[in-house]
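Per your request, structure below.
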């Protein structure tokens, strides 16, 4: 099969982002498509068969668009773009969220793009799947964008205070100090998007509120964006209570991983039950992430797949 060279014109800054530190991103592309990629200036040249060049070009174009939007390009983003192109999936470009400390926040996978679309379209969205798929981070990013634009009056974050097999003991301090350790991933996301000073200021003004599930009972949350995190550890009664807090002008996203239930009786988890009975309800969106949607270290996807395979294999002990 003949090998030819084609040139893809790119801004030098964008080209450097695509190439990656020490050409690591290019090395991933060359290995995946059996092409040779060089940077003669003004863009990238791709040498290889027509089919391989086409695949590499699609990945480079996807990465270049994200870099041009100000999004950070790392190895996880490159691997995700590779997986999308090689599986024949559509691009997740064009759905930018707020600008974080590391640049514009954009969906990195098709599943993330569909998730953001569901957040915009539905009053109640479920994001379920394994760790590292971005379901909590994107929910926080979307909520922060609504808060910043004034589309909602406040951001309310809640989750069950269920310990993952450990006994944390008595936690000193006021309510925020007791709840904050359980919400560390969301605070990290909000700090990255809004900045720690702005988050602290909005918390003091009541625009950002964190509370355990028990404090949701009896409330009506109007003109708010509500994030119910770690929902696999909500009981059926707790899930119904949380979902029925929605008031006028409010939206809610429920995130969780059904494979990480920490309840004494896993069958009491309200997440699977809610997904089953609400799947056809108007205004409800459900996005199920899978192992290939993991955007953390590549090792995380391999770990998730190994655990999934073990769950499906009969116990041979």
């Amino acid at each position: 099969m003949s090998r030819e060279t084609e040139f893809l014109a790119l801004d030098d800054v964008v080209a450097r982002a695509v190439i990656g530190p020490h050409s690591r991103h290019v090395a991933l592309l060359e290995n995946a498509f059996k092409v040779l990629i060089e940077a003669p200036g003004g863009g990238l040249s791709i040498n290889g068969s027509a089919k391989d060049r086409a695949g590499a070009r699609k990945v480079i174009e996807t990465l270049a668009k994200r870099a041009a939007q100000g999004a950070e390009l790392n190895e996880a983003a490159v691997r995700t773009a590779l997986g999308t192109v090689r599986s024949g999936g559509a691009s997740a470009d064009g759905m930018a969220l707020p600008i974080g400390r590391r640049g514009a926040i954009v969906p990195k996978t098709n599943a993330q793009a569909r998730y953001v679309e569901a957040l915009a379209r539905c009053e109640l969205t479920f994001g379920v799947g394994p760790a590292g798929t971005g379901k909590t981070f994107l929910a926080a990013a979307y909520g922060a964008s609504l808060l910043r634009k004034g589309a909602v009056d406040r951001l309310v974050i809640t989750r069950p205070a269920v310990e993952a097999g450990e006994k944390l003991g008595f936690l000193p301090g006021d309510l925020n100090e007791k709840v904050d350790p359980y919400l560390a991933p969301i605070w990290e996301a909000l700090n990255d998007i809004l900045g720690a000073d702005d988050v602290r200021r909005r918390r003091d003004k009541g625009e950002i509120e964190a509370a355990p599930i028990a404090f949701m009972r009896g409330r009506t949350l109007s003109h708010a964006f509500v994030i119910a995190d770690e929902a696999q550890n909500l009981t059926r009664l707790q899930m119904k209570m949380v979902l029925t807090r929605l008031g006028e002008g409010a939206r809610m996203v429920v995130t969780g991983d059904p494979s990480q239930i920490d309840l004494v009786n896993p069958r009491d988890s309200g997440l699977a039950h809610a997904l089953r009975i609400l799947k056809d309800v108007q205004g409800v969106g459900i996005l199920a992430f899978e192992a290939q949607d993991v955007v953390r270290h590549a090792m995380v996807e391999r770990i998730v797949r190994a655990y999934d395979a073990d769950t499906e294999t009969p116990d041979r002990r």
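Residues 50-68 form the longest helix (19 residues).

Regards,
D.
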